[in-house]
Write a structure and sequence with these properties.
This protein is mostly helical. It has nine helices and no strands. It folds into two domains: about 120 residues; about 80 residues, no CATH class.
């Protein structure tokens, strides 16, 4: 009797854990590319630190040259604001040359700024994020072992397989619409009965 109750209890626990992880995956997909951000790279950290250093030197120069009070206030405010960028990105492992104005305006720092701008516009692929979350969930469930862990692993593996299948379907539909532009209108008409939730999920999957 006790073993029967234990088995009955492990099934909901495994399903609940699996559903919670799948819900997290759906949040990753529906969040969209604009919400997801990559961790700051070394170049972005260097650029954030260099921005603060540039602002500080500009504020010092404005004061030394006895510029207008307005310009001095602007440069001081810029230096203060730039501290937030450094705090958010974190300090780099290596610092770019920035002891003097000439060093700050060096070609390497211009290249660094352009690289940071390009990297800051990059977004992670929601599919890759979702797949990584599922893979991590499978690993965590496997660590618990037992009936509950085994069932959770099976549930998450099944969800991962379905997620991959759905990804292939969405990608296939996009290829079809590109190759058959005359059928695009009819294809969209066939999807009109989709729920708002489904439309939002598919739109997020398309990136």
């Amino acid at each position: 009797m006790k073993e029967t109750l234990t088995k009955r209890m492990t099934i909901p626990v495994a399903q609940t854990a699996g559903l919670a992880w799948v819900a997290l995956v759906l949040m990753c997909l529906t969040a969209g590319c604009d919400t997801l951000r990559l961790a700051p790279s070394e170049q972005q950290k260097q650029n954030a630190w260099l921005h603060n250093r540039t602002a500080a030197v500009a504020a010092e120069a404005a004061k030394a040259e006895q510029s207008s009070q307005e310009l001095q206030a602007l440069t001081q405010l810029s230096e203060l604001q730039s501290r937030a960028f450094t705090s958010y990105c974190g300090l780099p492992q290596e610092y770019p040359p920035a002891e003097t104005t000439e060093q700050i305006l060096g070609e390497s720092n211009w290249q660094l700024a352009n690289t940071a701008v390009t990297e800051s516009a990059q977004r992670p692929d929601p599919w890759q994020v979702a797949d990584s979350v599922l893979e991590f969930g499978i690993g965590i469930a496997a660590l618990f072992g037992g009936v509950c862990g085994t069932r959770a692993v099976r549930f998450l593996k099944d969800a991962r397989t379905k997620s991959q299948a759905l990804k292939e379907i969405v990608e296939g539909n996009e290829i079809f619409k590109k190759q058959q532009p005359s059928q695009t209108k009819a294809f969209k008409a066939a999807q009109q009965n989709q729920s708002p939730e489904t439309r939002q999920l598919v739109a997020a999957m398309k990136g």
